[in-house]
Amino acid sequence: MVFRKYKPVSQWGKQDTRIFKAILNARNARKMPVFRVPDAVKALGVKVHDPTLPGFFDSEFVQRTEKDHRDFSQSDVTAHPLYSDTPCRLFEGSEPMSDGVDQACVISKAVLRTEFPDEIMKNALEEIDEEKVRDAILHGERYDPTLEKLPRRFDPVLFWVKHPRVHGTPVVKRGNIILDNLFRHIIFSAIGKEKLKPTQIKFNRDEPFSTTVHSAPYFLQSPLVIRGQPHLTALSVTHTTPWASKEDVELTRDESIASIAPLSPLIDFGSDHIYNKESVVARPSENLSLHSIAWTREQSQKYPWTSEQNAANAVLYTFGAAMSEAMKRGEKSLAESPVVSRGIQLVNGRLDLVAVQVNTLDLSQKEEKKNIVWLHKGVRLYMTKPYFEQMTEVEELNMDAVTKLSALLLS
Amino acid sequence: MLSALRREMASCTLRMGAVASSNVVVAKRGLPARGTKPLPRNLWDQRDLQEQTGGEYTHQPLRVKRLGGRDADTGRKVNQHIGGGVKFDYFMIDFHRRGPTEEGATYDERILEVRRDPNRSAHIALVAGEKGKRWLLATESMRAGQIITTSGHLTENPLIGIEGNAYPLGSLAPGTMVNCVERYPTADSEVFVVKAGTAATIVRHQGDFVVVKLPHKHEFSLHRECMATVGRLSHADIEGKIFGSAQMHRRFGYKMSSGLFHKKDGYFGRKVRALPPVRVLDTPPEPAPPKQQFTLTKAQLSGLPAAAKMHNLMHAGYTHREYPQ
């Protein structure tokens, strides 16, 4: 809290009233010059209405102004420039996927790999300074001076207690600072070790994206819209190399996608008439390809998501980002060089590390080649404290998570 | 659906007959001052629920206004010892499970979660299927990950139902324990048996009707197309649980009932009565007529007939004769 030495004076007495009345009387007594239509307005030939004339408010001019003014008109959703008659199925990360990662795989027609390939793990930074990582985490958790009002605390055991509201850094902002720092540390270390060119990757912060998928079997009638605002959007100057070779991609024809019966994969999507029909990406005019997105999720205090649901969220967002890049390049180009996008989600000190390789835009044919998802879900980075407590030192830091993150980013 | 939601709130236990809303306190904790039949508890504001959801079902937790035992129209207390406490999130329960009527076809759902619900005694289960997610009352052995099915097919030979699955009453063998039994084969009827640990028993089949014995041993003859879930409701040990303190009792919205001692009269004591005959519920009751609002004059309020209906100031010397100039 801000320290206040003196209490502000809140007295209000008759002396104040007398002074204010005197000021008001003086102001009212002040004579204003008579208004005359300026010569410049006269020269324009604009018709000037005098509101002091009787019948001014009944005049057609006033009536028409009231009718046309937006404050008097009813809000009409169909007048929105992005309105579409066909409602979309909307994914915004607000509703958890009921069946977790399997459901996300069904939607994206992807096969799941739970380990990163060995070639990718070879790219990891060998020597990462643990102190720098600790400092990166403490920057968000301890050093950040933000004093925003934090949400109301809910204790599931002492459910009746009204806790005092505390001020500090919101959870999402803490996580975003940590992600920023980790990205910077990894990228600069890689540049220092000449694993990466300094101009290879460009960053955009808090850039919204929206992807519209029209593919069968689920999204032929009403498209799937995946939209979000990741904190970090990394764009690469060159196309990233695919994680799976052509032979591996061909082998996915024989693999089956997880079954989520009797659930429908669509039950967790919302519906909206207002959406972008085309994809919205960062820096659309520049010839860049999407490298990765990173964001932080705050767990609900009452209804926290499971690690499966968090991971499914990360997979779907990354799939949406990859699809926007793949649709930009086109189906033919995918056969030669599939699109790989990476997603990093930080939830409660745990990282969901995802890579999605889009091999085909056609999500209908189950026998054809499929997309591939590599996922490390819920990798503990450090042990968090509840948002109303102050972290003084980083506990249970897991450097293995940073290694995996570096492998993901530098692949 | 709308009226089902409306009724869902008020019906936590069996209610029979029309209950006249009154402006005086007539009930204590949902039980009338005289008699044994529970009254509407007026715990949640049904209109607020209707406004929030627009009459549609949602599985999302809701913040519904609490009435605190007050009449929604007049705002006066109709239910004593109810009010205050913590406002819990409200979960809408779907009491009407409907499935395909073709033979062998079922509507399958997976149980995602079974949890306590502070708003009702039985546990509730979140299930997901082809049509979406919904909350059901959980039966005893429901666990996350199980598949439950719903069938609307009336079989020729009665079935031994599987716990958690829903069937029409006409398909179930006598002796089956059921819960959430629809009163009429409509999707907006109230249901019998929603209290934790209870179950009704199917007694016999009679043509188009099935006789069901409710937990309080009264027998009802319901249409065989009425849906019911097989099994006993969960959280049977709620009877053995205690709030632990008067304060905790108040947090859940129950106020203390101590007061001036009244000697028990003849209405108290054990009642040994013969069970009533089987009641047949064949046609749904007519919906209640819309409420009218009007104001009575003082003369009308007096309730006196024509000649006696004199001006209320007549006793004070008021006359109709004209005043002298």
Automatic annotation (TrEMBL), chain A:
GO cellular component: Rab-protein geranylgeranyltransferase complex
InterPro entries: mtLSU_mL37
Domain of life: Eukaryota
Listed GO biological process terms: endoplasmic reticulum to Golgi vesicle-mediated transport
PANTHER family per record: LARGE RIBOSOMAL SUBUNIT PROTEIN ML37, MITOCHONDRIAL RIBOSOMAL PROTEIN L37
Name of the protein in its database record: Ribosomal protein
Gene: WBGene00100830
UniProtKB/TrEMBL annotation, chain B:
Record-annotated Large ribosomal subunit protein uL2 RNA-binding domain positions: 69-150
Keywords of this entry: Ribonucleoprotein, Ribosomal protein
Xref: Pfam families: Ribosomal_L2_C, Ribosomal_L2_N
GO biological process, one term: mitochondrial translation
Gene3D superfamilies according to UniProt: 2.30.30.30, Nucleic acid-binding proteins
A molecular-function term among this protein's GO annotations: structural constituent of ribosome
Membrane-crossing segments per the record: none
Residue span(s) of domain Large ribosomal subunit protein uL2 C-terminal: 161-284
Domain of life the protein comes from: Eukaryota
InterPro entries per UniProt: NA-bd_OB-fold, Rib_uL2_dom2, Ribosomal_uL2, Ribosomal_uL2_C, Ribosomal_uL2_RNA-bd_dom, Translation_prot_SH3-like_sf
GO annotation, cellular component aspect: mitochondrial large ribosomal subunit
Family listed: Belongs to the universal ribosomal protein uL2 family.
PANTHER family: LARGE RIBOSOMAL SUBUNIT PROTEIN UL2M, RIBOSOMAL PROTEIN L2
Protein name in the entry: Ribosomal protein L2 C-terminal domain-containing protein
Species, as recorded: Pristionchus pacificus (Parasitic nematode worm)
The encoding gene: WBGene00305213
